[in-house]
């Protein structure tokens, strides 16, 4: 049996001065710090046997993927299946103004936190990311491939891979900016999951997807 590794890379910090939940909104690019994060993760993966780099269609993922692909003389493919999850609060600053959780118009979206009812169901995210992983594995058998995507789809895919419940506390996700969650397959069997944070030195003061400081 041969080993095949699929690296799920989260994009870097995004330029988001209004600190809104940008979700699938177009045009959100990496910040200067995010660009440096992308270089660090590219350096981290430079010595690996990577034969394909694919990204979500969103700009921040494409920008993160570019230096990774460049290190290996590859182009960046695009896969809609690894796009960010949908969210009722997209375009709002959560907890402020129209995004205040006390706003009655949001209440129907809190009816089921296990699905969750405020966004794309966890199971649907896992299904589409798993399909992309499966195709990347089959195409790059015996080598390694990179998928650049987003925090929540990566995290619930890891939870599913490890047989853990998909419902979770978002504050406890192990999926930092430009982190690498590696699915290591032995033949057709997922042998184990590895995790690395090559951009951790830049986390101090960085802003996450909802506009909150990481540290």
TrEMBL record:
CDD domains, A to Z: HP_PGM_like
GO molecular function terms listed in the Swiss-Prot or TrEMBL record: phosphatase activity
Lineage top rank: taxon: Bacteria
Stored InterPro entries: His_Pase_superF_clade-1 (IPR013078), His_PPase_superfam (IPR029033), PGM_Phosphatase (IPR050275)
Gene Ontology CC annotation, any one: cytoplasm
Pfam families: His_Phos_1
PANTHER family recorded: BROAD-SPECIFICITY PHOSPHATASE YOR283W-RELATED (PTHR48100), PHOSPHOGLYCERATE MUTASE (PTHR48100:SF51)
Protein name: Broad specificity phosphatase PhoE
Organism (species): Helcobacillus massiliensis
